Amino acid sequence: MILLNDDYVELGLDSAVRQNSMILDRDKSKWFYKKWHGLTESRGREEKLENQLRGHLKYMKDLYRASYERSIIPYPTSVPFADYKEKMEKGERKDPVYDTLMEVFRRLPKGGLLHVHSAAALSAEELISLLKEWSDPAIFIETEGKFAGKMDYQPPEDQTGTKMALAVFLEYVGAENRLKEWLTVGAHTDHVPYIWDAFNQIFMRTSDLFTNRNFYFEYHRRFFLECMRDRIDYVELRCGFQNFTTHEEWVQHDVILDQSPEFLDVLIAARDAAVAVYQQETAKGGWKLPSGSMELGVILCARRDLDADVDRDKEKLMKKIDTAICWKLGPYLELIKGFDFVSEEDRGKASYTYYHDIFYGTAFDGYKDKNNKAEFTSLKNQYKEQAGDKPRIRLIELMLHAGESLWMEQENIVDAKIASRYRMGHGFQTLEYPGALLSYQFATRDSMMEGPVLEVCPISNQMLRYFPDIRNHYALMLMKMGVPCVIANDDPQILGNPGLSYDFWEMFMASDGGLMMLKGLVFTAYLFQYQARITLPLSEWNNDIYDTCLQAFEGLYWMPYLQEMNVFFGDPQV
Question: Could you give the CA distance from residue 192 to residue 175 in angstroms, rounded to a whole number?
Fold first, then answer.
């Protein structure tokens, strides 16, 4: 407890100031990681290495602060990320401190990427490289008008129109820069009154490309490679249900949704191919995958603009979540991690509208096959028997987007706190709901996962205009109040933040948490990687399992990183 006025009189000014400073430093070193016992209790060589790295990080951050306070530069977190990144990495402003700090974050093993959308996962630069190389089938692009930038595999019907082969378009001067603008948000979208309009339009421009199985595979193979090169070896990918225009004859469509799980097999194959390439790259040196491979999970999604009060949409929602459940009950038990309702919250449907028929409705019930196929009824009854008449919320984890809003009237944060046991997407609005926040604070003293972990996407939140200066991000306060968080990149293609290094950079520069904040964020993500590898839900862990997880984290991730940083900064060996 902070010493008060009377303490200063009784103890003496210098003594009381020293004690308060010690209390504040202890608070900063612990933050919410008091929830993870043993994490900040370093001893011996580990403690010495941590102290050395902490000193380097503080020194570099202090240089930025001093330059900002002398009006030499704007503080990095107050500048739109895409603009700052372009200046730093295109040679417009040489900054050795930025380069050094970014190298520190690039070498940081991230533990896991738990919130990224499949349709915008690959960086814009790598996507453009893929588009330039792609030839079979040919891609065509609209170059003007309302649908400018939209790509597909259909040749133009009228040769005099504005649609042309992408390969031809890219031959024009400035075409590649124009294509990048169509694939991202940044200074070129500052004029848009409502940024979500520009954001959603980008998804429209690329969605048809994923209907080709080979493109879907190559896109995700490159994405997984980007992750591993940024020291991410666990990814949970949020995916829509994807059907391919052409597929192998043997592929069967699920009888409920008329949806093939083939895209899940393609994701697994893309991951395996990326791992093989990465292991070749690092055969003679480089960061080895600590567990020998990359673990992959999928969170299946439906769009939040589907209305449960409209019969057609309600049936579609029930079928989507039931399809996810039957796949999880079947061959994809370990792959499918949960279900989410994605897209913009403010103009989407509120989560509570999904309670009655969707979340708490009985699985495989509430709809019929319009074609009266006996096969449909038989299989649905089989699934229903396997599920045991349980509500959907008991058969698949809900990992809901919630609290990505500035409107107090938007109450999805409360519904996500009720429905989501383990994780919540974004969730920064929790600070505005003391009743929900209180349960998180109690959770620090109770079971490991009494309240869901927040998947914080700082660059996304800035670029979508929620926090123009990340120093004011609610997550920084929420962590100090007992809410565990992980760092995620959301939509790296659109936002310009592939991997997690950039988001870690922003949160470090925005906060006073220092090295222990980084350690806690990485370990929190690693918990989910570890539980995926041992296939045991966090709710069933005991102290022995937790201790084994902590030892694995420190032995495979943290201590090797500290040793690498010791060499990187040329510190005396300790």
Answer: 22
Q: Which pLDDT value is given to residue 93?
A: 65
Percentage of residues in the chain with pLDDT exceeding 90? 66
Mark out the alpha helices in 72-152 (DSSP H runs).
Answer: 81-89, 96-106, 124-133
The number of folded domains in the chain is: 1
Quick one: how far is CA 507 from the chain centroid?
14
Sign, CA dihedral 32-38-43-45, equals: negative
Q: What is the pLDDT of residues 179-215, one digit of tens each?
A: 999 999 999 999 999 999 999 999 999 999 999 999 9
Provide φ and ψ at 231, rounded to 5°: 65, 45
In this prediction, residue 17 has a pLDDT band, given cuts at 50, 70 and 90, of confident
Three-class SS state of 151: strand
Q: Residue 186: CB partners within 8 Å, gap ≥ 6?
A: 80, 82, 83, 86, 463, 496
Between the CA atoms of 198, 199, 205 and 206, what dihedral angle is there, to the nearest 10 degrees?
170
Q: Who's near 243: CB < 8 A, 6+ residues apart?
A: 211, 259, 260, 263
What pTM was computed for the model? Answer: 0.93
Assign 497 a pLDDT band (cuts: 50, 70, 90).
very high
Question: Is residue 168 situated within a structural domain?
Answer: yes
Peptide bond just before 74 cis, omega within 30 deg? no
H or E element in which residue 561 lies: helix 559-568
Burial of 420 (0-12, 13-18, 19+ CB in 10 A): buried
What pLDDT does residue 249 have?
53
**Residue 174 included in any domain:** yes
The DSSP secondary-structure symbol of 139 reads P
Residues of the domain holding 150: 138-191
Question: CA-CA distance, 407 to 409, in Å (whole number)?
Answer: 5
C-alpha 338/C-alpha 324 separation (Å) is: 8
User: Residue 30 is encoded by which pair of tokens?
Assistant: 């612990």
Residue 8, CA distances (Å) to 12, 15, 23, 25, 27 in order: 5, 8, 15, 19, 20
Residue type, 145: G
Residue type, 466: Y
Q: Is residue 48 part of a domain?
A: no
Q: Is residue 175 part of a domain?
A: yes
* DSSP one-letter string for 421-479: SSEEEE-GGGGG-HHHHHHHHHHTTS-TTSSPEEEE-HHHHHHTTS-SSGGG-HHHHHH
State the greatest distance between any 2 C-alpha atoms of the chain, in Å, as a whole number: 88
The per-residue pLDDT for range 266-292, each reduced to its tens digit, is 999 999 999 999 999 998 888 999 999
Cβ contact 235:294 at 8 Å: yes
H or E segment to which residue 222 belongs? helix 213-229
User: pLDDT class for 90, splitting at 50, 70, 90?
Assistant: confident
**Interval 459-469: pLDDT, tens:** 999 999 999 99
